[in-house]
Design goal:
This is Deaminase. Pathway: Cofactor biosynthesis; riboflavin biosynthesis. Keywords: NADP, Oxidoreductase. The protein is of the alpha/beta class. The protein has a single domain, classed as 3-Layer(aba) Sandwich (Dihydrofolate Reductase, subunit A). β7 and β8 form a beta hairpin. The longest helix has 12 residues.
């Protein structure tokens, strides 16, 4: 995020907040996970592939008996997802879409053969999603955003660790998306996160927090 807490600006072009070195670090974190989750808004806005970029890391995963890539996961309330998005068309690992009943019934035929649509009932609740992923063998889930998904997981107190990279500039536009939206967060002045690590990545700063669920 920017120094004032934004994850993009308000222009049509995607703002590059990170660096080559940090993207490689992110790739290494991905390689140690079982699944990766983004919101439907991120699928629409960024069209991410969500693959492990390093050939060496992919080979190491296969050598350990793991799929080369992570299971991809997204959440959608509206069902507004393009079957041609790279989320669905790249990578050989499973793609899972969690949606409430009214959306799932309409979405499943459109994504047939591309992804499994999981009906979450009347609500799209984090505990239900995590429970279903755990039943599928997912032990370590990487949540990459955007702001709505960050808010959803943090307010649900479902985050073990937060890796926050701060870029050395400001956005200053209240219409731009922020790292989180309004919400009631258990990570409060009365229950602060614990800072575990500070790392310099060029002009970026990585702050690694234990956020709640895994603090012990």
């Amino acid at each position: 995020m920017s120094a004032d807490g934004y994850i993009d600006d308000a222009t049509p072009e995607r703002l590059r907040l990170s660096s080559t070195a940090d993207w490689d670090r992110v790739d290494a974190v991905r390689a140690g996970c079982d699944a990766i989750l983004v919101g439907a808004g991120t699928v629409r806005a960024d069209d991410p592939r969500l693959l492990i970029r390093s050939a060496a890391r992919r080979e190491q995963r296969v050598a350990r008996g793991l799929p080369a890539d992570l299971t991809k996961v997204t959440l959608t309330w509206s069902g507004d997802l393009d079957p041609g998005a790279r989320f669905f068309t790249t990578g050989e690992s499973p793609k899972l879409v969690y949606a409430p009943s009214g959306t799932a019934g309409e979405l499943a035929p459109r994504l047939d053969g591309l992804a499994e649509v999981v009906d979450t009932g009347d609500h799209l609740a984090v505990p239900a999603v995590l429970g279903d992923l755990a039943a599928r063998g997912v032990r370590r889930l990487m949540v990459e955003g955007g702001g709505g998904v960050h808010t959803l997981f943090l307010t649900a107190d479902a985050v073990d660790e937060l890796q926050l990279v701060v870029a050395p500039f400001f956005i200053g536009d209240p219409s731009a998306p922020r790292f989180v939206r309004s919400g009631v967060f258990p990570q409060s002045p009365e229950r602060p996160m614990r800072l575990e690590e500070v790392t310099r990545i060029g002009n970026l700063a990585l702050l690694r927090y234990l956020a709640g669920a895994g603090r012990g």
